[in-house]
Design brief:
Elements (H helix, E strand, L loop, with lengths): L11 H6 L5 E7 L5 E6 L5 E2 L6 E2 L2 E9 L9 E10 L9 E3 L13 H13 L4 H7 L4 H20 L7 E8 L4 E4 L5 E4 L2 E7 L4 E7 L3 H9 L3 H6 L2 E4 L3 H10 L4 E4 L1 H24 L8 H4 L1 H5 L7 H14 L4 H17 L3 H18 L2 H12 L1 H10 L4 H16 L6 H17 L1
Parallel strand pairs: 2-6, 8-13, 13-14
Antiparallel strand pairs: 1-2, 3-4, 5-6, 6-7, 8-11, 9-10, 11-12
The structure holds zinc ion.
Zinc ion binds next to loops.
Length: 433
């Protein structure tokens, strides 16, 4: 389109204001002491968007309020905007308004303000409301800029997704469970879980979806092209059957790897369950401070190899004093053996430790340990893959910390879309930085 050449601004106010294509016409103060800036373009002619004929006739001048970046505090900006009259008498357009790169048609915000909003919210974990207040816009306006930036980013990456050989799928809770009444006055539950997808090689978050079931994972995977899915070799997941089912259907070439962290936790949960049951059996009540096994419950969960000599002695005493049936001791042994199994660096070593683990479970002969063995049996191929490839969601942890910070600064987003938008944009900013 025809663009009038604008000579460089040379007056002091315009140079300071520094808005491309504009001149500062006047600066005044309003009743409450705020600064009001009137701007206009020096354009003397414009091309009609309909017929292309260049015109120099100004039909009228209107005042348009424009939101712009603050200058040592907020300033009110008014654009003295021209409406041109088309020089071609037969043109259906008759009149048309001027517009610039900084204020395109229908825009209420300058382009530089939009950029400032997106940068402030994607480069740092900041509260949307705080940024909106600082830049003199409303929360929805600030959020709308983020959504638009996110859409533009998604458009750029959708054409050619980056190949991912090891993929991490990790669930996290994004808020507490809440209920709300919908339009039909029916109570509905707010889905408090989200699932993140990460490239394990870089730690980059490549997707965030609502929920943590098989459907959620499948829906996201289906948006990926087939060639992309067939390149994924390893997928690190939590020990969740739903995730495994989704991976088996949509990532046919990938082997599942399960995080050690989650399995150690399963071992600890098993020990805690046994400790609680034994407490009821022996005292007919739940544990309390006077019970050594309750008082030292965290000591029981610590890895034996991480304990000091003092800690080891203490542990021995606790089990000798408060474990008459030796059930807690047996459960503790199973838990420790699981830790040794998971610490192995070769599958052959792990096989040997597993045989010992199974032996311990047989000796323990408790429903809790049997259940743990069943889980380990089910996930054994995934554990072996994990030992072989060392594919873990550890790198995802960094992203999860950010996600939690975004959640905290946002004081709980009600909308998943807004939350997802911030996570993805923050991640993009982090990756390109
Ligand atoms: Zn025209």
């Amino acid at each position: 389109m025809f663009k009038p050449a604008v000579d460089a601004a040379d007056d002091a106010a315009s140079v300071l204001f520094n808005l491309p294509e504009y001149r500062v016409v006047a600066v005044t103060c309003d009743q409450v002491g705020g600064r009001v800036v009137f701007i206009g373009t020096p354009a003397r002619q414009a091309g009609c968007p309909s017929c292309g004929v260049v015109t120099a006739r100004v039909h009228q001048r209107t005042l348009q309020r424009v939101r712009d970046v603050p200058f040592d505090g907020l300033v009110t900006v008014w654009w003295i905007k021209k409406r041109w009259r088309c020089a071609e008498g037969l043109c259906p357009k008759a009149t048309f308004p001027e517009h610039t790169d900084q204020v395109p048609p229908f825009a209420r915000l300058t382009t530089r303000l939009k950029t400032r909003i997106v940068t402030a919210l994607s480069a740092e974990v900041r509260c949307v409301q705080a940024v909106a207040t600082e830049l003199g816009v409303s929360w929805p306006t600030a959020m709308r800029q983020l959504t638009a930036a996110m859409g533009a980013h998604a458009g750029r990456t959708a054409d050619r997704p980056v190949l991912v050989y090891s993929l991490g799928i990790d669930e996290h809770r994004f808020r507490s469970v809440r209920w709300y009444k919908d339009d039909q006055q029916v109570w509905r539950r707010v889905e408090p879980w989200m699932t993140t997808f990460t490239n394990l090689a870089t730690g980059a978050v490549i997707g965030v979806v609502d929920g943590r079931d098989s459907t959620a994972v499948k829906t996201w995977l289906k948006t990926r092209p087939r060639w992309w899915r067939h390149r994924v070799r390893v997928v690190a997941i939590d020990p969740s059957a739903a995730f495994r089912a989704a991976v088996a259907t949509l990532l046919p070439k990938a082997r599942v790897s399960v995080d050690h962290f989650h399995l150690v936790k399963l071992g600890n949960d098993m020990l805690t369950a046994v400790r609680r049951r034994v407490s009821w059996d022996t005292h007919d009540r739940r544990g309390r401070t006077s019970d050594p096994t309750w008082a030292h419950r965290l000591l029981l969960l610590r890895g034996y190899d991480t304990l000091s000599d003092n800690g080891k002695t203490k542990l021995k005493t606790v089990l000798a004093v408060d474990d008459p049936t030796n059930q807690i001791g047996a459960a503790w042994g199973v838990k420790e053996q699981l830790r040794r199994l998971l610490a192995c660096t070769t599958v052959a070593d792990a096989q040997r430790e597993r045989a010992l683990f199974n032996q311990f479970v047989t000796w323990a002969a408790m429903p809790e340990t049997d259940r743990l063995k069943k889980t380990i049996d089910t996930w054994w191929p995934a554990i072996a893959t994990s030992i072989r490839t060392r594919a873990t969601n550890a790198k995802t942890e960094a992203a999860n910390v950010t996600i939690k910070n975004i959640k905290r600064t946002g004081r709980g987003y009600r909308s998943h879309d807004n939350y997802r938008c911030r996570i993805m944009l923050y991640n993009t900013a982090r990756m390109t930085a």
